[in-house]
């Protein structure tokens, strides 16, 4: 699959010159992947037909980038739209994308290195068989024999003297003069202790041959290895500087050191020694005396312990020795190695507690490799490269399995726990059901949203309704943390625990050990030990800071202090965990202390820093966020200490981010300038815009929201501003990603091998160049070093300045395992270890689809139910018409419940002012259009029918509808004494000019949702009918322009028909001239009227329970809570001045503010 795709891309690039010049890398492919899913998802979501395309694109981009900002409430979307957003998120998370790289690299391993894969599989089978026939005692014998065979059980090369004689490196002759015991060997440590205790010389102690040389063990938190080369010269020892000193211009120097009787050192030529590793001449001098003299002068390869900001847990430690000239008993001088440390004890204790004691430095390789930074193996032969590829391939396979277990396992844990909790808790289950969401689907979606750090919720108020729900807040906090910021920590912990539970020396143990030793060679989000501890400490510190600010700075905010102390701490912790990643809201941000708001904005911006810095620290190519800051020279100054390094990273990151953030803010400020300048729109402020921009760029999703609206603040933006936020989300999603140079994202290839070889050669050439620049002395010393290297059998392999002896490698792994391939062990079909990669992918995908289908198909079936609107026979019950029209109504004279700038008058006043009157053909209800300067409100009328209804068919024949700035007319049904318990049906309602068409709405208490199958021609805008959600917007349906206002009036009016029955509520509109004959003949049959303008079925709403004892109400309100809102009065309809001032001073503007009806007729079913 991958090769076919690459061939198509290559063919396309050859045909198009522009593409041929385009160099694809990881970051470009990542951009293409995210954008592709955003566009694809937007198209699928838009096909639902219930939202604008810009909102569909906004939602899909939010899911692809895990931003979590929403311009529409997710519970108003159809189920399939919610599922699409769910799937996009799961396919675009960092864990999924970076994990996919592991599978791609595995594919390329199998494609390019088939022989390595074959050998690696054979090795695993061989190890498995060995474990089944070897008991614990045998294992110990194997380890002992391995240690006694040389360094890590590998043979040692022959070391020759000047005369050309050779001595067997495996010789066990204790009298061999060329033997120099390892500094860290147990024998030497025992000899030193014994001799020190009795004060006698060690000259009489028996010598030890190389055959008894053991694997180096720890004498101190830092390992020390010294290699001695004999040199037939009578002069002082030659000091070879480290590669870093060569880079600084250093050259070989002859040490003229003379030690006096008490061991004090007279002179040292190097000025670059680390103070932590300074030589103390007295510390271990007695140890070395016990070993007797070493014959002749020696070359000592010395690497100063230069402090570097890199992990200490490397495979090979640095050499930490200093040459000291001592006098022997016969008066001759000899150069010995005196590794003496006077390092900080606290620092050593910390290192000793954090460093592992390796039984073997690289037990998974048959040779002692030279490893540079970022697990870069240098100077490898073809056989060694194949063996390294074999263990890396095996480690990648193990990592792939662990990633699948991690990703699916924690998804499943969150899903099961949240479903189990919500299904067994009726109190919180009612909250979910009230928003029209199925409880199982809520558990699935919410847990995945937390683990994937998405932030979308199916409850419109985010997690505000669950402020006091302890279990979900704890579980979601855990999922949020391990799904993003602490994912590298949790993954390494899981690998480490498995390595401790696995038998040492087994194939699986070697694979896990390789992952722990070389994490960044295998996976971009797996770091070395020290970097992982650093990341864990940062995560804990940032969460702690947020909780402290939340508790201390909000001591006087009732939104926080009203909560019990325990719940307050829990909410603070949940909000802290969600602030940098998920973006859930547990409390209204606008009610918090301004300093807490600013701290949250800062935390959102730095959300990527911990992982980005950890990734950059462990990358040899100096990758930072979206930029590479590497060069041919090592950045010594920056690497010197951590604070300087982090400061440099922050400065570069700020220069990368800030211009883009403020450019987006600037564009939005232009696009939303009129609203930002409006002082009365207190919820639309520049700081809230900046907060939204930072939230989008940080891909967090935290938002201030807007008054009486449950969506994010972005929902108030226009199209241009929404597109800017989308761009912020996409750009911000790519902060902290590795570039193509990162070793963990490079595919195995010949080019990669050549690159690594060239890197080693480049550093060697730089070293040689510095040597040649040191004058005749340096040249002579360079020749001497070269000769010594050849005589001693040393290669140019080095690690941190230490020359490593060339060791005889064991037979290639293919040779040792070839006989085993003849009789392979067949694993059972049910054992996942025997499955191919394709089989594992197929089974994993099938399992996921099956689980989702089992849960979602029943939900989908329920959601697609539709009530049976069987035809009913209706008979006329009540008629409101002619001169007696108003006699059947009661005039409402109380204060306006919606705080309108209006005075409702009684019947006599209305008749006197000619605000209501009736003729044989029509009835009129109007607003006072003559009285000037009405300081307390303009006169108007509100009437309520004396009869009440629980069901029926209502026919409203309308000639004229009111319109004009500041008006809020309505024809509706409700129980004025028991609202909202008995429901409300708005047959006609709009504000101001009413040019957008009529809005038909129902309002209820909890438990009525319209997120189900509906048959209607109007556009639904909300699906939760609960009056406490969406600012009491209810479940609305908007008709076209001719369904209300001036457009309807010019067409001669029309008929609105409302059917209220147990099966549902339906409303039709028939313009004048298109009224059905059965309505005119007073024999209405709704089954013949076609699809309704608005449909509110009883699928997820008990109509008989929510609607009863309803009166017919007609009124014309002025201003009020709805008409005076800036988004309607000013922004949408561009009405002048303020609403109340306009009403008071402009009576002539209300000449069109009147209702005119032909009749109301109510039919009952029989």
From TrEMBL:
It is an enzyme of class 3 (hydrolase). One of its GO terms (cellular component) is plasma membrane. It is found in: Cell membrane; Membrane. PANTHER family: HIGH-AFFINITY POTASSIUM TRANSPORT PROTEIN-RELATED, POTASSIUM TRANSPORT PROTEIN DDB_G0292412-RELATED. Residues 333-344 have a biased composition (Polar residues). It comes from Penicillium patulum (Penicillium griseofulvum). The keyword GTP-binding does not apply. Its main location: membrane. Residues 162-171, 228-250, 319-332 have a biased composition (Basic and acidic residues). This is endo-1,3(4)-beta-glucanase.
């Amino acid at each position: 699959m991958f090769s076919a795709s690459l061939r198509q891309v290559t063919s396309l690039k050859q045909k198009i010159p522009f593409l041929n010049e385009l160099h694809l890398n990881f970051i470009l492919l990542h951009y293409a992947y995210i954008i592709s899913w955003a566009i694809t998802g937007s198209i699928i979501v838009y096909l639902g037909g219930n939202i604008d395309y810009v909102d569909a694109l906004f939602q899909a981009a939010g899911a692809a980038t895990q931003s979590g900002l929403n311009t529409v409430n997710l519970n108003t979307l159809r189920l399939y739209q919610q599922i699409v957003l769910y799937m996009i998120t799961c396919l675009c998370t960092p864990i999924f994308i970076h994990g996919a790289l592991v599978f791609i690299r595995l594919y390329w391993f199998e494609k390019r290195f088939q022989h390595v894969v074959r050998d690696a599989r054979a090795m695993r089978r061989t190890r498995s068989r060995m474990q089944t026939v070897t008991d614990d005692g045998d294992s110990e014998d194997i380890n002992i024999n391995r240690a006694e065979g040389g360094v890590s059980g590998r043979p040692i090369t022959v070391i020759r003297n000047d005369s050309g004689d050779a001595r067997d490196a495996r010789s066990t002759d204790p009298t061999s003069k060329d033997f120099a015991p390892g500094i860290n060997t147990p024998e030497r440590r025992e000899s030193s202790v014994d001799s020190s205790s009795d004060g006698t010389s060690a000259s009489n102690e028996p010598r030890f041959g190389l055959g008894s040389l053991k694997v180096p063990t720890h004498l101190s938190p830092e390992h020390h290895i010294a290699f001695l080369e004999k040199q037939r010269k009578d002069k002082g020892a030659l000091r070879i500087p480290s590669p870093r000193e060569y880079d600084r211009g250093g050259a070989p120097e002859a040490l003229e050191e003379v030690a006096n009787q008490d061991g004090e050192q007279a002179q040292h030529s190097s000025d670059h020694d680390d103070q932590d590793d300074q030589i103390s001449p007295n510390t271990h001098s007695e140890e070395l005396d016990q070993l007797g003299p070493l014959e002749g002068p020696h070359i000592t390869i010395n690497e100063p312990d230069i402090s570097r900001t890199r992990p200490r847990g490397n495979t090979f430690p640095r050499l930490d020795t200093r040459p000291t000239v001592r006098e022997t008993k016969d008066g001759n001088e000899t150069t010995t190695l005196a590794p003496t440390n006077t390092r900080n004890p606290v620092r050593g204790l910390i290192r000793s507690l954090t460093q592992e004691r390796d039984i073997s430095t690289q037990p998974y390789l048959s040779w002692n490799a030279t490893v540079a930074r970022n697990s870069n193996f240098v100077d490898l032969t073809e056989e060694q490269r194949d063996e390294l590829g074999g263990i890396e391939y095996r480690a990648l396979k193990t990592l792939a399995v662990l990633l699948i277990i991690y990703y699916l396992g924690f998804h499943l844990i969150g899903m099961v726990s949240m479903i189990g909790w919500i299904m067994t808790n009726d109190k919180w289950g009612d909250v979910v059901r009230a928003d029209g969401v199925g409880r199982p689907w809520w558990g699935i979606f919410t847990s995945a949203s937390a683990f994937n750090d998405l932030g979308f919720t199916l409850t419109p108020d985010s997690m505000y309704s669950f402020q006091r729900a302890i279990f979900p807040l704890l579980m979601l906090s855990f999922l949020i943390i391990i799904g993003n910021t602490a994912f590298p920590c949790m993954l390494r912990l899981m690998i480490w625990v498995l390595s401790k539970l696995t038998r040492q020396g087994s194939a699986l143990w070697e694979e896990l050990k390789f992952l722990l030793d070389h994490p960044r060679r295998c996976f971009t989000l797996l770091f070395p030990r020290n970097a992982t501890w650093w990341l864990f400490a940062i995560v804990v510190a940032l969460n702690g800071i947020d909780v402290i600010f939340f508790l201390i700075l909000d001591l006087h905010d009732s939104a926080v202090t009203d909560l019990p102390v325990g719940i307050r701490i829990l909410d603070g912790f949940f909000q802290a965990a969600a602030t940098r990643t998920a973006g859930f809201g547990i409390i209204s941000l606008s009610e918090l202390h301004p300093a807490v708001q600013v701290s949250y904005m800062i935390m959102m911006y730095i959300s990527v820093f911990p992982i980005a810095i950890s990734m950059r620290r462990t990358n040899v190519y100096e990758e930072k966020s979206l930029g590479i800051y590497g060069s041919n020279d090592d950045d010594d100054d920056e690497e010197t200490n951590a604070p300087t390094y982090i400061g440099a990273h922050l400065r570069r990151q700020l220069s990368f981010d800030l211009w883009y953030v403020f450019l987006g803010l600037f564009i939005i400020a232009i696009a939303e300038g009129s609203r930002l300048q409006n002082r009365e729109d207190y919820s639309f402020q520049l700081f809230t815009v900046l907060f939204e921009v930072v939230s989008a760029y940080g891909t967090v999703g935290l938002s201030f929201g807007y008054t009486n609206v449950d969506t994010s603040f972005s929902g108030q933006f226009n199209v241009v501003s929404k597109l800017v936020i989308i761009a912020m989300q996409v750009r911000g999603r790519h902060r902290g990603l590795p570039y193509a140079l990162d070793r963990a994202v490079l595919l195995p290839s010949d080019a990669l091998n050549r690159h690594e070889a060239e890197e080693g050669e480049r550093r060697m050439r730089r070293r040689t160049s510095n040597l040649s620049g040191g004058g005749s002395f340096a040249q002579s010393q360079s020749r001497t070093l070269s000769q010594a290297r050849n005589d001693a059998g040393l290669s140019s392999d080095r690690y941190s300045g230490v020359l490593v002896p060339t060791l005889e490698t064991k037979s290639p792994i293919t040779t040792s395992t070839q006989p085993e391939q003849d009789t392979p062990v067949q694993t059972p079909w049910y054992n996942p270890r025997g499955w191919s990669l394709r089989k594992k992918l197929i089974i994993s995908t099938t399992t996921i689809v099956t689980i989702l289908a089992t849960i979602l198909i029943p939900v989908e079936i329920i959601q697609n139910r539709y009530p049976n609107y069987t035809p009913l026979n209706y008979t006329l019950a009540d008629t409101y018409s002619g001169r007696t029209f108003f006699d059947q109504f009661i005039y409402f004279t109380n204060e306006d419940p919606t705080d309108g700038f209006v005075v409702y008058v009684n019947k006599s006043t209305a008749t006197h002012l000619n605000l209501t009157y009736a003729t044989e053909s029509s009835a009129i209800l109007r607003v006072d259009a003559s009285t000037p300067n009405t300081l307390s409100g303009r006169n108007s009328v509100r009437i309520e029918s004396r009869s009440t209804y629980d069901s029926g068919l209502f026919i409203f024949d309308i000639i004229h509808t009111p319109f004009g700035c500041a008006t809020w007319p309505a024809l509706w049904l409700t129980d004025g004494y028991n609202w909202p318990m008995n429901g409300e049906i708005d047959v006609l309602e709009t504000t101001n000019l009413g040019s957008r068409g009529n809005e038909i709405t129902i309002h209820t208490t909890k438990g009525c949702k319209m997120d189900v199958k509906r048959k209607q021609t109007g556009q639904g805008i909300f699906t939760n009918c609960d009056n406490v959600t969406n600012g009491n917007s209810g479940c609305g349906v908007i008709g076209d322009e001719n369904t209300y206002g001036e457009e309807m009036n010019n067409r001669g009016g029309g008929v609105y028909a409302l059917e209220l029955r147990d099966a549902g509520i339906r409303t039709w509109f028939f313009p004048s001239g298109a009224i059905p004959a059965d309505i005119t003949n007073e024999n209405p049959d709704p089954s013949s009227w076609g699809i309704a303008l608005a449909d509110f079925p009883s699928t997820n709403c008990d109509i008989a329970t929510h609607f009863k004892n309803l009166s017919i109400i007609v009124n014309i309100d002025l201003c009020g809570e709805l008409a005076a809102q800036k988004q309607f009065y000013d922004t949408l309809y561009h009405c002048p001045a303020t609403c109340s001032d306009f009403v008071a001073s402009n009576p002539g503007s209300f000449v069109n503010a009147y209702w005119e009806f032909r009749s109301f007729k109510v039919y009952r079913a029989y």
